[in-house]
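step=encode ok
step=design start
structure_in=
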């Protein structure tokens, strides 16, 4: 009897110790889980629908493309280990790595439930974006492409209709991620919630509107400079709290590792008026800022003949009539750079701090006097359309230009209405932003090329200038970025001289992370990559 009792006692102790060790192991690895929140939710994990930031952030952890961008927006190899461009600047020939495997899945029907990526996967993935049945919003990426094909397992060829030096950057977009045909066919439309790629993390579970989990990919091909396999983290956990204040409280309590951007509801809690981290957070939180490829501006519709703002003197009066530095300091806690150098923002090749519009009230009055003399209009009135999120900025401009004698009326519209009216040319002056899709300053000249008049393109202002158009077309024939920069700067100077817009500020990426987070890459496209992130205990 005593022997039986002793055996039960030993079993109980072993079971207790196993449970305790399991709990300790779990707690010891808890720090290897990176946690962040997406208040605007994720709608799809299919790269074909990578049109919104929230989707892109998730997809960046699961997929790879032929090429990738480093933190300085330089194009680097990824699935392609090298490439060549033909002398006529139209044909790219990519040589692929031969050691990249898709995430494990039973449908691969191999001994290890995976297989190597080939050029035929690249051909399939890019063709899929062009499939009308898929209706991918990324189809436009291939507008300038004539044809592409897999030459063999390791060689992929792509030919453009005309030279376009910026095209390689487009291939780094998440739309161009490489996906496996057999898995896409197996899931059909449900591939959006059963993604299989080649990225540093593997899809684990998704309870839509609640939580999304990725796990470390043990077969990932990239290594750090010391030869250690990436990623360092064991898992990524994403929540979907819609309330920004709740998200901030979770971060303040240490339950989230990242807070991206900042809301007016807690802006002053975290930052001083000069944009510095408040003292009570300096021991626990790291603040980073980097230029963001986003130019915020007021656009002017130049085909609205009955508007006084058709007159260039009036447009320049507004441009010189308000203080951008004061606006950024007091309304945005120093987040952003005053747009006093044209439309091309800081953080991209092509920006050169050339002289644009600064606060010069006497010059603003002089331009307004010229307008009055030319038109006889002693009481010019202009309507500015905005949404509620930018009302404070527009009211600041309204107050400032009233001091020089200009009557600016601010109309607040719902965001969808503002977008629709902007596209249809029904607004004489409207608040807008232009975020680069790819890392070339050509992207910022695109909205002023006359062939792109809305509704057939993004030229919302209907700006037209022959010299500008010639320079824009010439830029396609120049492969060297240093030479192309000079062309972009000339185009930007034309935009400044003709004033079809009122530049406001060049935006910044602002991130808050817990002090135990390291290796977070900051980039001017505000993309999240976690493969090199470490999380200390």
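sequence_out=
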């Amino acid at each position: 009897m005593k022997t039986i009792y002793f055996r039960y006692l030993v079993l109980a102790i072993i079971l207790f110790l196993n449970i305790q060790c399991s709990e300790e192991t779990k707690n010891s690895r808890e720090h290897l889980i990176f946690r962040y929140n997406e208040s605007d939710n994720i709608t799809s994990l299919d790269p074909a629908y990578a049109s919104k930031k929230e989707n892109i952030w998730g997809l960046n952890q699961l997929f790879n493309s032929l090429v990738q961008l480093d933190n300085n927006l330089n194009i680097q190899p990824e699935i392609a280990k090298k490439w060549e461009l033909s002398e006529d600047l139209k044909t790219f020939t990519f040589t692929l790595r031969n050691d990249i495997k898709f995430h494990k899945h039973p449908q691969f029907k191999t001994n290890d439930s995976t297989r190597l990526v080939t050029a035929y996967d690249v051909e399939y993935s890019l063709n899929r974006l062009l499939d009308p049945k898929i209706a991918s919003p990324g189809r436009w990426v291939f507008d300038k492409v004539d044809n592409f094909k897999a030459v063999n397992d390791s060689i992929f060829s792509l030919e453009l209709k005309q030279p376009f030096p910026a095209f390689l950057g487009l291939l780094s977009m998440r739309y161009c991620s490489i996906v496996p045909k057999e898995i896409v066919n197996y899931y059909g439309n449900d591939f959006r919630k059963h993604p299989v790629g080649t990225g540093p993390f593997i899809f684990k579970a998704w309870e839509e509107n609640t939580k999304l989990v990725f796990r470390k990919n043990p077969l990932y091909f990239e290594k750090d400079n010391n030869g250690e396999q990436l990623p360092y983290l064991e898992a990524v956990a994403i929540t979907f709290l819609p309330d920004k204040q709740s998200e901030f409280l979770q971060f303040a309590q240490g339950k989230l590792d990242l807070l991206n951007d900042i809301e007016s509801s807690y802006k002053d809690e975290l930052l001083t008026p000069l944009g510095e981290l408040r003292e009570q957070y300096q021991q626990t939180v790291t603040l980073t800022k980097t230029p963001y490829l986003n130019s915020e501006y007021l656009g002017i519709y130049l085909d609205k003949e009955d508007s006084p703002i058709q007159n260039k003197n009036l447009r320049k009066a507004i441009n010189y009539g308000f203080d951008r530095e004061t606006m950024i300091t007091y309304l945005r806690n120093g987040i952003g750079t005053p747009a006093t150098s044209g439309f091309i923002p800081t953080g991209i090749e092509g920006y050169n701090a050339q002289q644009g519009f600064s606060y010069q009230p006497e010059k603003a009055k002089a331009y307004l006097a010229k307008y009055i003399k030319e038109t006889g209009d002693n009481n010019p009135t202009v309507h500015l359309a905005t949404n509620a999120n930018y009302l404070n900025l527009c009211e600041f401009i309204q107050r400032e230009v009233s001091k020089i004698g200009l009557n600016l009326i601010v109309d607040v519209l719902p965001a969808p209405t503002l977008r629709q009216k902007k596209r249809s040319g029904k607004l004489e002056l409207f608040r807008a932003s232009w975020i680069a899709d790819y890392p070339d300053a050509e992207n910022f000249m695109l909205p002023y090329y006359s062939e792109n008049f809305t509704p057939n393109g993004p030229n919302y202002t209907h700006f037209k200038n022959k010299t500008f158009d010639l320079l824009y077309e010439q830029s396609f024939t120049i492969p060297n970025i240093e030479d192309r920069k000079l062309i972009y700067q000339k185009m930007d100077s034309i935009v400044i001289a003709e004033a079809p817009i009122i530049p406001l500020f060049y935006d910044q990426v602002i991130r808050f992370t817990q002090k135990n987070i390291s290796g977070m890459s900051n980039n001017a496209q505000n993309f999240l990559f976690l493969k090199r992130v470490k999380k200390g205990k």
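step=design ok
step=annotate ok -> The chain has two domains: 34-239+515-535, 292-509.
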